[in-house]
Design a protein that fits this description.
Elements lengths: L1 E3 H4 L9 H10 L4 E8 L8 E11 L7 E6 L6 E5 L9 E5 L4 E2 L7 E2 L3 E3 L2 E3 L2 E2 L16 E2 L9 H4 L4 E7 L11 H15 L24 E4 L7 E10 L6 H9 L7 H13 L3 E5 L7 E6 L5 E3 L5 E3 L5 E4 L5 E4 L3 E2 L12 E7 L2 H10 L5 H8 L6 H16 E4 L4 E3 L7 E6 H8 L5 H10 L3 E5 L3 E6 L9 H12 L22 H14 L3 E2 L5 E2 L1 H7 L8 E2 L10 E2 L4 H12 L6 E11 L7 E11 L17 H15 L5 E4 L5 E9 L2 E9 L1 H7 L5 E7 H10 L13 E10 L4 H12 L3 E10 L2 H4 L3 E10 L8 H18 L3 E3 L1
Parallel strand pairs: 14-17, 29-33
Antiparallel strand pairs: 1-13, 2-13, 3-4, 3-6, 4-5, 6-11, 6-12, 7-8, 9-10, 15-23, 15-24, 15-25, 16-23, 17-20, 18-19, 20-21, 21-22, 26-28, 27-28, 30-32, 31-32, 33-34, 34-38, 35-36, 36-37, 37-38, 39-41, 39-42, 40-41
Length: 814
């Protein structure tokens, strides 16, 4: 939100420098994110002065150019070549001297230099209106009054205005500070309490408002009072649409609002002055001179001011005419058929209070983030509607003439009364952390126009103005007191106090911290990606149907238009970003969420942990000459370590069938998915611009959370007795996996078999046979109570060999 310092000074006497005003605003919660010096004409016309055309004749080498000599109040006359048809001897003109930078209205800035035009020297430029940014006229040069003094700076001739504009990061709760008077009141309260200022805010005078006649009365019917608790309006006739005066245009341009015409500019001025959005309807286009405030049937078509046919929702509040034809989406955007044009002479001026929920829904659905909608969705003041209407009517009469041609219509069935809140002085001091005297509390509340209705020794009650929609409970009142008292006045303790709490179940954050510590200690780096993503990844690369994607209206970045259904593409974007900066060896992990549309629920949201590896497995080191690239098995080792750390030691292993992977495995318990991992499909990696193979794992966090609650850490005494090892070489079919061999060994060896390891795989069709391979495995046996004898171990190994031969068709190589 932009706030003009000159505009603030219309209501509040301010003697402080702009930088200091910015500091005070930030102290009271209106954080100034930027301060910019602005001028009503860009560049301030520096270097442009008044000149007197002493001589004017035909250019010797050009029929359409004049050769002039101009006196600008210096010793020598300036010779200037001019192409304007209206230049003549004796004129007072505006001259841009050499070195001046001009900012034309419809072009790029350019610097005036000495030069020759068709062989004649030219040292300066006699300017037209558009060349100085003063207007759009380029028919000829500007000719000034004869009495204008030679050498006078152009900035003095046109009384240019210099202003300072504060860019305020307005938080969503500050409904009272969406406008200049709201900010002036807040600033005035702070100056009164902390800077020995009167704090008086001068409100615009509306005492001269009067109804001239009632020839243009409009009937108003509000059919949805929940969406529109108050609707007021007045008719004004005999208007003349024209350009606004400079003072109004300067006010609007300073805060980034484009001037349009006197009537439209007046409504924008009131919006930014009082925080009350207004809407002007062309009275001649209001059928039957009747306004109906209602919702239209789902799917109704409404052509908005930007010439777009919009399909309405059932809860879009519409301002309709007597024929129930939509003229405006209430509080959001006007219609093309009822707006003010250059031929408009009579208007019906609307000033209403709308339910923020309705405005927010409509604004977001139609992607219309107008200034009016931003005010209404924060919560406008319902009790300022008529005041704003009178202020606007008087301003329009001043700017465009006209007559107030109806009584003010005000449909306000249930008046919104100020909220009364009771609290104790002890609450104030406890929450703020410092004891504030009672009279200081009273002074602050009085400065904020919050009336104290009752006060005792220990407690008090305060009436909150209706422009502070967010102040509804004691904590909110205390926040208001603290803002003006000053956060900097609260001492910061050098001690930290905290209470200890005990939870029986393992917290989710503890699980995340445990896994984060495990991964970071193994060389992984945590990344934090946006949950927003680009739909084109999923539509074009994965061919996911549009109806399964969770689309959003993202006005700040239209490319990020969905909530991500998988974390894979966020990871690939991070990898690309790093690889483009010569970081090729990456091990990353991320805790995040995925979103997709679901049949049973509108949206399905899940929490995941993703880990990824690409490039070399370990960082380059003098200890290792051969840098081994990350592969599927190195990723699998980390996946198993994570599951073991959480306490998941029993699960099924199945081949992964997922188009995102070239190959992979999933660990699961029946239909309950734990993790799936593998090598990312090369086509996907290439489409994203990744230059190396990527190995990626995706954990379902809910499964890990549940398992962590059930797992217990057990401590066992180190075994005193030696372990024994046996090696076996098995020739099996290509389809047999090591997992099958390991599971069968565990079942047979039971308590005495502590580990099964694969240390070699051999394939040779000539020696082993077609479709065969050889696994070399080691078996480690151990007993915590005694030293195992060879007979005991041989008995288990022989039984295991028998099982391998019978169940897997294995041949034992001896």
């Amino acid at each position: 939100m932009n706030i003009s310092l000159n505009w603030l000074k219309d209501y509040l006497q301010i003697d402080l420098e702009a930088e200091k005003v910015g500091e005070v605003l930030t102290e009271i919660g209106l954080e100034v994110e930027g301060l910019e010096k602005v001028e009503s004409i860009e560049g301030g016309l520096a270097g442009v002065v008044v000149g007197h055309v002493v001589e004017c004749g035909q250019h010797p080498n050009a029929d359409r150019l004049s050769l002039t000599k101009v006196d600008i109040g210096v010793e020598e006359l300036l010779q200037i070549v001019c192409g304007a048809p209206n230049v003549a001897k004796g004129q007072k003109v505006l001259v841009a001297t050499v070195g001046t930078t001009l900012h034309p209205l419809n072009g790029e800035p350019f610097k005036i230099k000495k030069g020759k035009i068709r062989g004649a020297a030219s040292v300066g430029m006699i300017c037209a209106e558009d060349e100085l940014g003063l207007g759009e006229n380029h028919d000829g040069i500007i000719v000034l009054e004869e009495s204008t003094k030679i050498g006078t700076p152009a900035s003095d001739v046109f009384e240019l205005e210099t202003d300072y504009v504060f860019e305020i990061g307005l938080t969503p709760n500050r409904s009272d500070a969406t406008n200049h008077i709201g900010v002036a009141k807040d600033l005035g309260a702070a100056l009164k309490i902390n800077y020995d200022h009167s704090g008086e805010v001068k409100m615009p005078d509306i005492s001269t408002f009067k109804v001239e006649n009632t020839n243009a009365t409009v009937e108003v019917e509000v059919r949805n009072t929940e969406a529109c608790p108050r609707y007021a309006g007045v008719s004004i006739t005999g208007l003349k649409i024209a350009e606004s005066p400079d003072w109004l245009k300067n006010r609007l341009k300073a805060i980034g609002v484009r001037p349009i015409s006197n009537v439209v500019d007046a409504t924008n001025f009131i919006l930014h002055e009082l925080g009350q959005p207004l809407h002007a309807f062309d009275l001649e286009k209001v059928t039957d001179r009747k306004i109906i405030v209602e919702t239209l049937p789902e799917g109704s078509i409404f052509k908005s001011l930007d010439e777009v046919d919009r399909k309405l929702q059932a809860n879009d509040l519409m301002i309709c005419d007597g024929a129930e034809k939509g003229m405006c989406i209430g509080g959001v955007f006007g219609g093309i058929d009822s707006g003010v044009t250059d031929s408009t002479t009579s208007i019906f001026l609307e000033s209403a209070h709308f339910n923020p929920k309705y405005i927010r829904r409509s604004s977001m659905h139609h992607n219309l983030r107008t200034d009016a909608a931003k005010v209404f969705e924060k919560g406008s003041d319902p009790n300022i509607c008529v005041y704003a209407l009178k202020r606007a009517a008087l301003l329009m009469q001043e700017l465009a003439g006209g007559t107030v041609a109806s009584e003010i219509v005000d449909v306000y069935p249930e008046k919104v009364e100020p909220v009364e809140i009771s609290l104790t002085y002890e609450q104030v001091n406890t929450i703020i952390g410092v004891e504030i005297p009672k009279n200081k509390i009273h002074s602050i509340l009085d400065a904020l126009e919050m009336e104290i209705t009752a006060s005792g020794e220990t407690n008090f009650s305060v009436k909150v103005p209706t422009n502070k929609a967010d102040v509804s409970r004691p904590a909110d009142v205390i926040e208001e007191i603290l803002r003006i008292y000053g956060l900097n006045e609260v001492p910061v303790s050098n001690r930290i106090n905290m209470s200890l709490s005990y939870g029986e179940s393992t917290s989710k954050q503890a699980v995340r911290n445990t896994l984060g510590d495990l991964l970071s200690s193994n060389g992984f780096i945590e990344c934090m990606n946006l949950s927003l993503s680009q739909s084109k990844y999923y539509r074009e690369i994965l061919a996911i149907p549009t109806e399964k994607l969770a689309f959003i209206h993202n006005t700040s970045n239209v490319h990020l238009d969905i909530m991500r259904p998988t974390m894979l593409f966020s990871t690939l974007e991070t990898i690309v970003h790093n690889q483009n900066r010569q970081q090729m060896d990456l091990k990353l992990f991320e805790f995040g969420r995925t979103y997709e549309k679901d049949i049973e629920r509108p949206f399905k949201e899940e929490e995941h942990l993703s880990i990824s590896m690409t490039g070399s497995r370990w960082a380059e080191s003098w200890l290792t000459s051969n840098q081994k690239a990350a592969d599927f098995f190195s990723l699998k080792a980390f996946v198993k370590n994570i599951l073991q750390r959480i306490g998941i030691d029993s699960y099924q292993e199945s081949p992964l069938e997922n188009e995102q992977f070239a190959y992979g495995v999933k660990f699961h318990r029946g239909k309950q998915n734990i993790v799936h991992f593998g090598k990312v499909d090369a086509k996907i990696a290439k489409a994203m611009g990744v230059k190396t193979d990527v190995f990626y794992a995706d954990f379902v966090m809910n499964t890990l959370f549940k398992s962590a609650k059930k797992s217990k850490i057990q401590i066992a005494e180190p075994v005193k007795f030696p372990s024994s090892r046996r090696d076996l070489a098995l020739v099996v079919a290509q389809s047999i996996k090591f997992q099958d061999i390991a599971m069968l060994a565990q079942k047979t060896g039971k308590k005495l078999l502590k580990a099964v390891n694969l240390f070699d795989v051999y394939e040779d069709a000539e020696r082993l046979g077609k479709g065969k391979k050889s696994y070399a495995i080691s078996l480690q046996f151990e007993d915590a109570t005694k030293t195992l004898k060879d007979k005991e171990i041989d008995k288990i190994v022989n039984k295991l060999i028998q099982q391998y031969e019978q169940q897997l068709g294995a041949v034992i190589r001896r």
